[in-house]
C-alpha cells in the first residue's frame, strides 16, 4: 500500500516558522504552511518518489485526495507534482477528470488551479478531446469560477494547435464577468496566444468591446512589448 507517512515526517523536519508566516501572508492567510519553498519541496518529492514510487492508476485518486485533505499548503503542491509524474508514467484516463475536478473545486486558489489547467486539464482534453463535449461543457457552465478558469486556460500551451473557435466561444461565455480571476485568465490566454498569432488577438480584442479593461490590458502586453522593440 502506498504510504505518505515518511513524507509527513520529512515535512515536519523541514518546518520553518518564519518562512511559513511569510508564505501564508502572501497567500492572504488562506492556508497554513510548513515554510518549505519550491526547490527544497521538489527535493522532498524526489526523495519520496525514490522510496515509494509513483502512485499507480489504482492509487492515484486516494493518494491525491489524502494529500489534499491536509492543512498545510505544501501537501497540495506535492499532490500536483505526483499527478505530473503519474501522467508522465501512465498517461491520463477519462476517469481522471473526476480527480481534476476535485482538485479544482477544493482549496481553490490560483496557485493550484493554474497548474491543474495548464498541465492536467491540458493533457486530459488533448488525449480525450471528446470529453470537451461532456466534462468540458459542464465545467464551462459551472457556477464555480475555478472550473471556468480551467476551461479558459487549458489551451495555454497549445500554441498553433489552439482551437480558436472553441477559445473564442469560451471567452465570450465569460464576457461581462466581474470576477478578477476570470478576467485575468482571459487576458492571460490572449497574451499567450498572441505569441503565436498577434494579428488574431489584436483583431479579437478590437472586435469585442465587452472585454474587461483588465483582459484587454493583459491580452495586449506581449504585442505592445514587441512593438517597442
Structure description:
With 229 residues, the protein is mostly helical. The chain is built from 13 helices and no strands. The longest helix is centred in the middle third of the chain and has 18 residues, at 73-90. It is globular. The N and C termini lie far apart (57 Å).
Helix content: 55-70%
Along the chain, the helix and strand elements come as HHHHHHHHHHHHH
Proportion of strand residues: under 5%
Q: What's the main sheet like?
A: none
> Strand tally, please?
0
Envelope shape: globular
Any low-confidence stretches, pLDDT <50, length ≥5?
none
Distance between the termini: 57 Å
Mean pLDDT: 97
Based on secondary structure, the structural category is mainly alpha
Rg on CA atoms, Å: 19 Å
* Count of discrete alpha- or pi-helical segments spanning 4 or more residues: 13
What's the helix and strand layout?
Blueprint: H1 5-13, H2 17-26, H3 38-52, H4 60-68, H5 73-90, H6 96-105, H7 110-127, H8 135-140, H9 145-153, H10 164-173, H11 180-194, H12 198-207, H13 213-228
Provide a short characterization of the protein structure.
This protein has 229 residues and is mostly helical. The chain has helices at 5-13, 17-26, 38-52, 60-68, 73-90, 96-105, 110-127, 135-140, 145-153, 164-173, 180-194, 198-207, 213-228.
Provide tags for this entry.
229 residues, mainly alpha, ARM-type_fold, DNA_alkylation, DNA alkylation repair protein
